[in-house]
């Protein structure tokens, strides 16, 4: 005979870690099912890596082209997921009232942001694994300390996430869509991803070198191509962008 109350419903919210994990899994599935997101996060970086590694279009300096391109494409992958993809998706979620409804659920708003961040990190792991495998097949010979690479990727993710959330939380969804794609194209061309920064005039180089994608691609290139130690200058630039972006997003983000 069962004890009294054994089958009595016990309503209430699930433990917070379980809610965050479930939301992160949902966010990841939605991202991977979205054709535009896959184009930004997987197809474009892969095509750029293969095309510019195989076809001699741009002078990337001494050595194999893939040794220059692979670190830049990894930086591009981080930017496409943490900034462009996240800004567009979050902007339209805000427009359609999804964020407002989620804000009324037991999952706290900071928990939702944590779930989105976990989704971005999971996607980036898949991107890095795929792009690394392709680059190795093309003859890439990476060097350097993996910890330096990990730190650069994490700070780059934080910097781009802050900027993406700031844009999504302050602009209309249509404006966010246009602006995020425009910024993606501009940083692709002028952020040292495909075209070396030394191809630009000296004064322009100084400005472009302060961009987060330039710091990330240059830092990864110094470590993975040249076997350099900890790239403190690039890490410092990314840290400043991360603090400014996340701080501004926390202050100005509007949920409705």
Care to describe what's here?
It is built from ten helices and no strands. With 256 residues, it is mainly α. The chain has one domain (16-53, 62-252). Helix 6 runs parallel beside helix 10 (232-252). The mean pLDDT is 87.
Describe this structure in a few short sentences.
By secondary structure, this protein is mostly helical. The protein has helices spanning 16-33, 35-54, 65-95, 98-103, 109-137, 146-170, 173-190, 202-208, 212-226, 232-252. The chain has one domain (16-53, 62-252).
Task: Please give a handful of descriptors for the protein shown.
mainly alpha; globular; 256 residues; single chain
- Supply Rg: 20 Å
In the predicted model, the low-confidence regions spanning at least 5 consecutive residues are none
Q: Which structural class fits the helix and strand makeup? A: mainly alpha
Largest sheet data: none
Distance between the termini: 52 Å
Give the number of DSSP strands.
Answer: 0
Strand portion: under 5%
Mean pLDDT: 87
Helix percentage? over 70%
Order of helices and strands: HHHHHHHHHH
The coarse silhouette is globular
């Amino acid at each position: 005979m069962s004890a009294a109350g054994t089958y009595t419903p016990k309503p209430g919210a699930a433990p917070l870690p379980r809610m965050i994990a479930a939301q992160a899994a949902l966010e990841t599935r939605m991202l991977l099912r979205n054709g535009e997101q896959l184009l930004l996060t997987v197809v474009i970086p892969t095509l750029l890596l293969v095309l510019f590694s195989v076809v001699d279009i741009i002078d990337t300096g001494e050595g194999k082209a893939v040794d220059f391109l692979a670190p830049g494409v990894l930086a591009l992958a981080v930017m496409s997921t943490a900034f462009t993809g996240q800004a567009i998706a979050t902007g339209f979620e805000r427009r359609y009232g999804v964020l407002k409804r989620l804000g009324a659920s037991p999952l706290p708003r900071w928990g939702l942001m944590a779930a989105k961040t976990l989704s971005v990190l999971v996607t980036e792991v898949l991107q890095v694994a795929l792009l690394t495998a392709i680059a190795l097949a093309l003859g890439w010979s990476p060097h350097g300390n993996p910890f330096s690479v990990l730190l650069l990727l994490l700070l780059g993710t934080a910097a781009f996430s802050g900027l993406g959330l700031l844009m999504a939380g302050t602009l209309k969804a249509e404006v966010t869509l246009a602006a995020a794609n425009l910024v993606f194209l501009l940083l692709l061309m002028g952020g040292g991803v495909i075209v070396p920064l030394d191809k630009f005039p000296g004064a322009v180089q100084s400005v472009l070198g302060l961009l987060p994608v330039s710091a990330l691609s240059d830092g990864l290139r110094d470590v993975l191509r040249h076997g350099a130690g900890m790239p403190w200058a690039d890490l410092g630039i990314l840290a400043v962008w991360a603090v400014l972006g996340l701080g501004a997003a926390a202050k100005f983000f509007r949920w409705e």
